[in-house]
Amino acid sequence: MNLYSEHYVTPKAERFVNKIWCLDNSIGESLIENKLVLPNGCFNLAIVTGNAIEVHTSKNKYEMNEGVYFCSQMTNKVLVNIQPKTKVTIIQLHTWTLSMFPKYDLSNFTDSILKINPKELPFKVQTDAEIETLLNTINTYFEELSDLHSDKNIIEKICEIIKNQEEISVSEISSDLKSSQRLLQIKFKTATGLTIKKYIQILKFRKSVDQMVNSDLEKLKLTDVALYNKYFDQSHFIKKFKDVTKTTPKMFDPNSYFLSQKR
Questions:
Q1: In the predicted model, what is the mean pLDDT of the chain?
Q2: Which residue, 148, 171, 199, sits at the end of a domain?
Q3: Do residues 94 and 152 touch, judged by C-beta distance below 8 A?
Q4: Which residues is 53 bridged to in the sheet?
Q5: Taking the CB of residue 11, how many other CB atoms lie within 10 A of it?
Q6: Most buried of the four, 2, 84, 139, 245, by CB within 10 Å?
Q7: What's the average model confidence in pLDDT over 15-25?
Q8: Are 230 and 129 contained in the same domain?
Q9: Which domain holds residue 43?
C-alpha cells in the first residue's frame, strides 16, 4: 500500500476542489516521521481515522486524533508525523472556495489548524467512508454549487487573473476588475487569510519547486530557475526559498516532501 495517493474529482467539481489526497499508514506498525508539506495556496479539510497525526506549522504543534480538521493557508513548510494504524484523507480546496461561504472571516487565520464538528459542513462526511464514497459526495455537492454560482465572484476572478499573468501587481488587478486596491485587499484577506502579494509569492515559489523536482538537480542552474520564475536574481531566489523551506535549493531533498503528482 502506498503511503501517498491522489484522487481526482469531476471537471465541474474541480472548479472548487483541486484533488483529494491520502496519507495512509493504516496497516503500518511504525511511526512515519519528519515528512514535509509545502504551501501551495490551497485550503485543506483533513479527515483523520485511527490513532493520530502530529503536525508542526510555523505557529504551533497540533496533535490530530480521530476527527475532521480545517487547515488554513500555510505560508511555510509543515512537518508531519503519522502514527501507526492512522489514515488521513485530505480534501484540497482552491483558494477561492471558502469565499463561497462569506460568513467565515479568515483574515487572521494562517498556518493554523482547527478541529471542527462534521455536522457544520455543508456536505455529509463519514470519517470511515471509502474514497469512492467520499468522491461521490464531494462531486455531487460541488457540482451543484457550481451550477448555483455560474458567475465567478471577486476572489475567484483575482486568482484567475494571477494564474493567467505570472507577474502582475495589485494595481494592475484592480484596474482589470475596475475596483479599488484597498477593497480588493480587504476582500482577499478576509476570504483567504493572505494578502494578494503573499498569494502571488506562494504560487511563484511552488512553480520553482515543481521545476526543480522535474529536473536533474545536479545539472540544474539556479540562475535559470530564478530568472524563469521572475526572481530578481539567484540570490533573491535562494533567500525566498530559504524563507519557506529553511534550507537552500541545493540542499532540497524532494524525497522528504509530499509533493503533488498533479500538474
A1: 91
A2: 148
A3: no
A4: 64, 82
A5: 9
A6: 245
A7: 96
A8: no
A9: 4-148
- Is residue 68 a contact partner of residue 47, using CB atoms and an 8 Å limit? yes
Look at residue 163 and tell me if it is in a domain.
Answer: no
Domain boundary among 132, 148, 164: 148
What burial class does residue 219 get, using C-beta atoms within 10 Å of its C-beta: 0-12 exposed, 13-18 middle, 19+ buried? exposed
> Which amino acid would we find at residue 202?
I
The set of residues, in sequence order, having a beta carbon less than 8 Å from that of 5 and lying 6+ positions away, is 21, 22, 24
In a domain, 10, yes or no: yes
- 249 CB neighbour count, 10 Å cutoff: 19
CATH code of the domain covering residue 221? 1.10.10
Q: Tell me, what's the pLDDT at 263?
A: 46
Task: Give the model confidence (pLDDT) of 187-233 as tens digits.
Answer: 999 999 999 999 999 999 888 888 887 776 556 677 888 877 788 78
The pLDDT value given to residue 69: 98
pLDDT at 159 over 80: yes
For residue 261, the model assigns a pLDDT of: 61
Q: How many structural domains compose the chain?
A: 2
| pTM reported for the whole predicted model | 0.92
CA atoms within 13 A on the CB side of 64: 31
